Amino acid sequence: MSRPRIVIVGAGFAGYRAARTLSRAARGRADVTLLNPTDYFLYLPLLPQVAAGILEARRVTVSLSGTLRDVRLVLGEAGHVDLDARTVHYTDPEGGTGTLAYDRLVLAAGSVNKLLPIPGVAEHAHGFRGLPEALYLRDHVTRQIELAASGDDPATCAARCTFVVVGAGYTGTEVAAQGQLLTDALVRKHPPRRGVRPRWLLLDLAGRVLPELDRRLSDTADRVLRGRGVEVRTGTSVKEATRDGVLLTDGEFVDTRTLVWCVGVRPDPLAESLGLPMERGRLLVEPTLRVPGRPEVFACGDAAAVPDLDEPGQYTPMTAQHAWRQGKVAGQNVAASLTGGELRSYRHKDLGFVVDLGGVQAAANPLGVPLSGPLAGAVTRGYHLAAMPGNRVRVAADWLLDAVLPRQAVQLGLVRSWSVPLDTASPELVRMPEAPAGSQPGDEPAAKAPGGEPARDRPRTAPAAHPAPGPVKRPDIPSEGDQ
């Protein structure tokens, strides 16, 4: 008799934890397959430190095959799930297609950059959800400072030294905080024209930074940012983006070459394609993370609307902390469903939050105790080391080296602007150009779009024709809480 087949879609916080749980709970009793576009789990909270040059890119990645024993890794993007046939259809990194049959399915596809119908944003802004975007931002910021140092026109130099971050949540706040420290270090090596210094703007329609956190933590972050020179503009956002700058909602036009989009995330469109009941783009599930009417399907993480048992009528927010814990419950319940065991309901106790503000500064509230300054910085880094499923020693070593050595101010040139569009369903992958004319058989093939056509290398003035993995449809009406 063949063993049950378990397929997990996505290896973010929820998918990775579900796979790790099942690798132990179902060992020898089921065949576990993990479908993911990359061969690593990305520890997203440390991504701003990659963009700032503190950590090398591989430090925030954890090998899937190296840490998930008895789990089969399949590289590819899920394109269609046939719930009746119990199959998942996917496209591999070289454009080939495949099918995975399952007896149990765990949907943990995660989330993508949230898009708003603001003119020019999709063409001129970049998100911050994947490793390619972080590497691009580090190169781009370095390049702007270097070009400003060698430029002759004061206005152009000032524009190159101006960086706009939209969204003052966790990601945007950390990007602005780390970015200001990075550019301050860069100008010491590449001083721009007299009177020009790096200028960072952090915009948000909310009345304060980190609006989802306790007021004391928000005030701490605001004080650190302003003290460092970051211009915090609350109640303000972008009305229009152009090649030369951004028009703000208060009427001011800011000359800049850098627009970082951190207004939040929305569920991966794969969830909506299933045709099942949804809640604001998220798949409705029972407290046990099982999909109603589909006992063989479970969903967790950002793709799932999980009832909050402590606040009836509400759903758990889309955070890494929830995704990590939901992944464990999903794995346990899938294993229990194979043997007729009792399924657990997901209930979460808030353990607090940490926000790294760069240097020795941070804002944290472990177990509800508000902290700031170097003590919060130590707690924050200790938390990340404890939470990471691997690479702890390497991360700690990079932190130590950054504390005693100057940062390397060089461009790697690995990621180009057009290869990390904001409007993408897979921020963890770079956009690939079409294979050059005259290429020989056996050369690296061009990426293919969902319809099978080869991807095109198009200028940013034509963003509608995105190659694989394809664009995310922009909602006609922004969801509640949009910036």
Automatic annotation (TrEMBL):
InterPro entries: FAD/NAD-bd_sf, FAD/NAD-binding_dom, NDH-2. Keywords: FAD, Flavoprotein, NAD, Oxidoreductase. Residues 5-327 form the FAD/NAD(P)-binding domain. GO terms for molecular function: NADH dehydrogenase activity. SUPFAM superfamilies: FAD/NAD(P)-binding domain (SSF51905). Residues 432-483 are annotated as: Disordered. The keyword Flavoprotein applies. Residues 441-453 have a biased composition (Low complexity). It holds the Pfam family Pyr_redox_2. Belongs to the NADH dehydrogenase family. This is NAD(P)/FAD-dependent oxidoreductase. It comes from Streptomyces lasalocidi.
